[in-house]
Amino acid sequence: MAHSSSGFRGTRVGVTEGAGLKNQGEDPLGERLPRICVSYWCVQGHETRPVFIKLPEDQIPEVWDCRRCGKTASRNPDSAPGQEPPDDGDGYKSHLDYVKERRSSQDAEEVLAGALRRLRARGGLAD
Known about the structure:
16% strand; two-stranded antiparallel sheet; 2 domains; alpha+beta; 127 residues; Rubrerythrin, domain 2
C-alpha cells in the first residue's frame, strides 16, 4: 500500500502503464507513465525537484523536505523567504548533533586521548 501523500500511488520506478508479465504481448514494456518534476524551495533558498507521476494538481504535496538542509520547503519560492518555520522538534539533525546528544565533552576528550595513545604506540603519530 502506498503512503497517502506519495506521488507514485503504489507504483515502482520504471513501471509502465500496461506492463504485464514478461511473456505476454509483443511489447511487454507498454507505454511509459507520464511524469512531472515539481520545484520546492526552503527558507534558505535551496531548490528540491522531486519527480512525481502526473497527478491532478490537488494531489501533489504542497510541502516537501529540503534535501540539503532538511527544512520544510514549499512550492512557492516567495512564501516567507526570511522566516523560519515553527520548530516542532523533529527538525533536521546532523551526525554531529546526534553524537553530542550521546556524549559529553569529557567523554569526547577521553575518546580522543585514547585514540591518540593507540596511534602513538603503533608509531603512526609523532609526539
